[in-house]
C-alpha cells in the first residue's frame, strides 16, 4: 500500500522495475497487482492475450464515478461494453474523416489570436490549451464553443480537473482494497462524490440543450451519431464524460509538455520552423502533410514518449487464469501497464530520460512500434486518432507563428511534473514572440 502512495507513482514503479524486473507483483490488501514496465510484456498482455486481460477491476469507487460502470474507460468487458465502444469509435472515426481537421484548424487560429493579444507578455498557457482542446470536443459533440472567460467552461473544467486530481488520491483508491475503510469519514471521497454530482448536472444541461438543436452540419455530428444508435441515456452521458476528460485534459497536458521541453532545447523550434517554411512554402499544414514533415513528427513522438499523460493507463483485470512472460497470473489480478516505465526502458531507448526528438528521425534508430502512449489492444485509447491530429496541428500552427522564449529572470520549466491520473507539467510561464 505504501508503494502506491508515493508522490510520483509512475517514476517510483519504474524504479522498482529496474530493481525487480519489468514484471513484478505488489500486494494491496486482498488485491494482487502486477506491474508491467516494458513494451514487450505490455503487448503480450494487452495485444497477444487481450481476451485474458480485457477486464476492469471490480471497483467500488469506479462504479460511483462511471454511472455504474457505463463508461468506456471504466466499464468492465462485456457484450454491452463492446457495443458501446464500437458505436462510439465509429462515430469518432466519421468525425476524423469529416469535420475534425477543420474544427482543430479553427481552434488553432483562435489560439494564435489569443497569443498575439498577449503582446509578448509572460503567461501560463495551460488554460488556453485547455480551452482550445475542449472546444474541439464540444464543437463536435454539443455544437458549442466557449471563450476562456465563459462561466460554463470554467465550471465544467474546474469540476473535471478536481475529479481527475481526487481520483488519484490513495485515500480513495484504498476504499477498493480495504472495504472496512468505507465506514470511516473520508473527506477526499466526499469531495469526489460532490464533484461527480456537479459534473453530471453540467453534462446533463449540455445534453438537454443539444436535444433542442437540429444539427445537420459537421458540428454536433458526434452526438447525432450516438443518439441514432441503441445506447441508453446513461451510456451517452458517460461517453461525453470520457471524451471531455480524455480529449481535453490529456491534449492540453501534452501541449504544455511540448512547450516546456522546447524551452529546454530552443534549437528544435528553429528546426521545425525551417522545415515548415521550406516544405509548405508559407501555408498552414494539413494533417496529410505529416509524412513530409519528419522533424515536426519526431517532436510529437518524443513528447508522447517522455510524457505519456496517462502514465499508468487504466488498470486491467485478468478475467481468467493466464500468464505473462512465463509467470502465472491468477484470475482477478489487477494489471498495471506502466507506460512511463516502458517509455524510459534503457534496454530500448538510448538516454531514455533525455529530450531527443532526433531519435525518431531516419538516422536516429528509434522504433515507433515501441511507443505505447495510448496503451494497446482492446482497451486502446478511444480518442487516439483525434489526439494525434490535435497534437500535430496545434504544435505545427504554434511553431509556425511563434518563437517560444523563457521570460527574463525566470528559470527553465521543471520537467518532472505532477502525476495523478494525468501526468501534468508544473505550471510555468512563457513568452510567445510572433515570427516575422
Automatic annotation (TrEMBL):
Phylogenetic lineage: Eukaryota, Metazoa, Chordata, Craniata, Vertebrata
EC numbers: 1.14.14.16
Family membership noted in the UniProt record: Belongs to the cytochrome P450 family.
Entry-linked Pfam families: p450
Cofactor requirements of the protein: heme b; heme
Membrane topology: Peripheral membrane protein
Listed PANTHER family: STEROID 17-ALPHA-HYDROXYLASE/17,20 LYASE, STEROID 21-HYDROXYLASE ISOFORM X1
GO molecular function: heme binding; iron ion binding; steroid 17-alpha-monooxygenase activity; steroid 21-monooxygenase activity; steroid binding
GO biological process, one term: steroid biosynthetic process
Subcellular location: Endoplasmic reticulum membrane; Microsome membrane
A GO cellular component annotation in the UniProt record: endoplasmic reticulum membrane
Residues that hold heme according to the record: 381
Class of enzymatic activity (EC top level): oxidoreductase
Protein name: Steroid 21-hydroxylase
InterPro entries from the UniProt entry: Cyt_P450, Cyt_P450_CS, Cyt_P450_E_grp-I, Cyt_P450_sf
Keywords from the named record: Endoplasmic reticulum, Heme, Iron, Lipid-binding, Membrane, Metal-binding, Microsome, Monooxygenase, Oxidoreductase, Steroid-binding, Steroidogenesis
Amino acid at each position: 500500500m505504501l508503494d502506491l502512495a508515493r508522490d510520483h507513482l509512475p517514476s517510483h514503479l519504474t524504479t522498482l522495475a529496474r530493481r525487480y524486473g519489468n514484471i513484478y507483483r505488489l500486494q494491496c490488501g486482498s488485491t494482487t497487482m502486477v506491474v508491467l514496465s516494458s513494451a514487450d510484456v505490455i503487448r503480450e498482455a494487452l495485444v497477444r492475450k487481450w481476451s485474458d486481460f480485457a477486464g476492469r477491476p471490480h471497483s467500488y469507487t469506479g462504479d460511483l464515478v462511471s454511472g455504474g460502470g457505463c463508461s468506456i474507460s471504466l466499464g468492465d468487458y462485456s457484450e454491452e461494453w463492446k457495443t458501446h465502444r464500437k458505436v462510439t469509435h465509429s462515430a469518432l472515426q466519421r468525425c476524423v474523416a469529416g469535420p475534425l481537421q477543420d474544427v482543430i484548424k479553427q481552434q488553432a487560429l483562435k489560439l494564435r489570436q489569443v497569443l498575439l493579444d498577449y503582446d509578448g507578455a509572460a503567461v501560463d498557457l495551460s488554460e488556453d490549451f485547455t480551452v482550445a482542446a475542449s472546444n474541439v470536443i464540444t464543437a463536435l459533440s454539443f455544437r458549442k464553443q466557449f471563450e476562456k472567460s465563459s462561466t460554463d467552461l470554467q465550471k465544467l473544467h474546474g469540476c473535471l480537473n478536481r475529479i481527475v486530481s481526487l481520483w488519484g488520491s490513495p485515500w480513495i483508491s484504498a476504499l477498493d482494497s480495504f472495504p472496512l475503510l468505507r465506514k470511516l469519514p473520508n473527506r477526499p471521497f466526499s469531495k469526489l462524490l460532490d464533484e461527480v454530482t456537479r459534473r453530471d448536472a453540467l453534462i446533463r444541461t449540455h445534453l438537454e440543450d443539444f436535444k433542442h438543436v437540429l444539427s445537420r452540419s459537421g458540428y454536433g455530428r458526434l452526438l447525432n451519431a450516438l443518439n441514432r444508435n441503441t445506447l441508453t441515456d446513461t451510456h451517452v452521458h458517460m461517453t461525453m464524460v470520457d471524451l471531455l476528460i480524455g480529449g481535453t485534459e490529456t491534449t492540453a497536458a501534452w501541449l504544455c509538455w511540448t512547450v516546456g521541453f522546447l524551452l529546454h532545447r530552443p534549437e528544435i523550434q528553429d528546426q521545425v520552423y525551417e522545415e515548415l517554411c521550406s516544405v509548405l512554402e508559407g501555408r498552414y499544414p494539413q494533417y496529410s502533410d505529416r509524412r513530409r514533415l519528419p522533424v515536426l513528427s519526431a517532436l510529437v513522438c518524443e513528447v508522447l514518449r517522455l510524457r505519456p499523460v496517462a502514465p499508468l493507463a487504466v488498470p486491467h483485470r485478468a478475467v481468467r487464469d493466464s500468464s505473462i512472460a512465463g509467470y502465472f497470473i491468477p484470475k482477478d489480478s489487477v494489471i498495471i501497464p506502466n507506460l512511463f516505465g516502458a517509455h524510459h526502458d534503457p534496454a530500448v531507448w538510448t538516454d531514455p530520460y533525455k529530450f531527443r526528438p532526433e531519435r525518431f528521425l531516419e538516422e536516429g534508430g528509434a522504433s515507433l512500434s515501441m511507443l505505447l502512449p495510448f496503451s494497446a489492444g482492446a482497451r486502446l485509447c478511444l480518442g487516439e486518432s483525434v489526439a494525434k491530429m490535435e497534437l500535430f496541428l496545434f504544435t505545427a500552427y504554434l511553431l509556425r507563428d511563434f518563437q517560444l522564449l523563457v521570460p527574463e529572470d525566470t528559470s527553465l520549466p521543471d520537467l518532472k511534473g505532477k502525476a495523478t491520473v494525468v501526468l501534468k507539467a508544473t505550471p510555468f510561464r512563457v513568452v510567445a514572440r510572433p515570427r516575422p
